[in-house]
Amino acid sequence: MSRLEIRVATRRDRVALTALLCGLSAESAYQRFQSAIGGHPSRAVVDGLLPEPPRGVALVGLVDGVLVAHGMWARAGDVAELGILVADGCQRQGFGSEIATALLADLAARGIERVEVYTGSGNRAVPRMVARQAPGAARTVDGPSVSWTFPVEARRVVAA
């Protein structure tokens, strides 16, 4: 497995993030956004994936300098919502879990105490990741959507 370098995303990552989104299969895009984003996402979609503190934080994961993963948290009232995306060819290699660990460490460092994660009921990766990261998470099913809520615990940042 190649080593994933994780760093904070900046507006300079727009082009690489757009390329990542354009390279997604329709299924992967739907699993992340629960909506079609089209062949070329709008600037508003890309900018929405690059929140800045205190509203949120975005991280990117690179392998050999190529952006292959994106993760973010955004404030939603008294919780933070997490979203993670991994390029089709890089899925099931642990990159999503590495990004999740780094996001949770960032939340803990900022004193944010609760997390929510949403997905469609057909998504298989997110339930596995939640089970590893927060085995006691409260699960709620609402039609085709599933959400998990769990406390943020102090975590060690993944070495990048």
Automatic annotation (TrEMBL):
<keyword id="KW-0808">Transferase</keyword>
<protein>
    <submittedName>
        <fullName>GNAT family N-acetyltransferase</fullName>
        <ecNumber>2.3.1.-</ecNumber>
    </submittedName>
</protein>
<dbReference type="GO" id="GO:0016746">
    <property type="term" value="F:acyltransferase activity"/>
</dbReference>
<keyword id="KW-0012">Acyltransferase</keyword>
<dbReference type="Pfam" id="PF00583">
    <property type="entry name" value="Acetyltransf_1"/>
</dbReference>
<dbReference type="InterPro" id="IPR000182">
    <property type="entry name" value="GNAT_dom"/>
</dbReference>
<feature type="domain" description="N-acetyltransferase">
    <location>
        <begin position="4"/>
        <end position="153"/>
    </location>
</feature>
<dbReference type="InterPro" id="IPR016181">
    <property type="entry name" value="Acyl_CoA_acyltransferase"/>
</dbReference>
